[in-house]
Every structure is written in C-alpha cells, then in structure tokens.
Structure prediction request, 261 residues.
Amino acid sequence: MFELMQTPVLAALLLSVAIGIIGSFMLINRSQFIAAAIAHGSYGGIGIALYFGISLLLSTTLFAVALALLLGYITYHDRYRSDTLIGVIWAVGMSIGIIFVDLTPGYHPDMMSFLFGDILMVPKEDLYFMGLIDLILIISLIFGYPRFLAISYDMNFALLNGLNVKAIYAWLLVLTALTIVMSIRSVGLILVIALFSIPPFIAEKFTANFILMMVVSGVLGFLFALAGLFISYRFDTSATATIILVAALFFFIALPFRKGG
Prediction:
C-alpha cells in the first residue's frame, strides 16, 4: 500500500499548498463562481490538445489563463451583468472542448478522468508541474501579499491608494487558473471547486488572521485527502469522490459554528 500511495500522497501535499493560498483568496473574494467558470471552461483546452495532439498541460494552461484574463476584464468592468457573462463563457469553453473531442478520431476513455479526476493515477511528471505552480504561488504571495489582501477586502480603497488594481486582480485570477490546471488530473474539473472551497471555509471559522487561515486551510486539505485516500483504499471507492465527501462531512460539522468561535 505504501508504494501505491506515494504519488497520490505527494500530489495531495502539493495540492494542499494551492488550497491554502488560492482557496483562501477565493473565499474572501467570493470568486468561487469565477473559478468554477475557469475550471469548466478550461475543458476547451483539453479538447484542443486532444484534437491537435499537443501537450495537454500547455494547451489547458494557455486556455485557462486566457479565460481568466477574459473573466477578469468582464467582472472588473461590468459587475452588474457579470453572472450572466460568466455563465456563457463557462458553457462556451466546455462546448469547445466537447466539439474538439467529438472531432478527434478514436475512443477516448480517459476523458472522464479530466472531469472527475483520479488522484491515484496522477503521472509523476505532473508532480513537477504541480511543484512549479506551488513555487509560483509562494513567490507571488511573498511579494504581493499586501496588494492581494488590499484588493480582496476593498478594491476601491486600494485604487484610491494608488495600487494597480487591474493588474493585481488579473494576476490573482491567472494564479487561480494555474492552480486549476495543476488540479485537473488529481481532482478533475467538476470537483475541484469543492476541494478549494471547503477547507478555507472551515479554517475561517477558527482562525484570527488571514495567514493562519491559509495555513490551516492547507493542513485541512491535506488531512482530508489522506483520510479520503485511506477510506477509498479500504472500501475500493473512487479516491477523489471519497476525499470530497470527507471534506463535505467536516463542512457540515463546522457549519453551525460562528466565525471566531
């Protein structure tokens, strides 16, 4: 079992770093809907990669980043109608992916793994990509933390204080897109938002500052993944779905608690 679980556990550890950082910013920005649109819409990049026979990571990364920048522009300039526009982009991205998959000759049984993920089948080369994204996240956090926090809590106040709000907001969405791409093999496009939303939600209730919230979010994400992996191994169930259910169980346990309580 130990040899079988080495790669999934390492993938879970790398994911937990992203959960702590991006998941926490998603929560305080209330940007889960935008992140979900990037996640589902990036299926277009998967379809394009399959059709043209190019690198999956390269195609999906470029597609997801393009979606993030487009969504950033829309939500920044037209907030009142942004929900409708986000929903349209979400559907268009997925539709592009579906069409390209349909046009690609042959049968593609692995497409389901992109939608629902399989942390047990993460290729070792993907771990390097996940590590690279984590490094980018950590460096961005070190140098941009005050700016990210400023636009997250009060974008207008940040603008009045001379911050380049558009650029900071766009970079935060690009980081979200990169995080989603690194999670495709492990969690899948359908379930990724749940895993990135639940640990920060719980952590926020029991932490006094944002840095601690990120740390606790990451730790919870890793523990949920370990518990889910153990249960899935014991009962021969889908690892990713089991991880989400473990996280959801603790979500409902934490739900009655008030923030700071």
Q: What stands out?
A: Residues 124-153 form the longest helix (30 residues). The radius of gyration is 18 Å. Residues 72 and 170 are 6 Å apart (CA to CA).
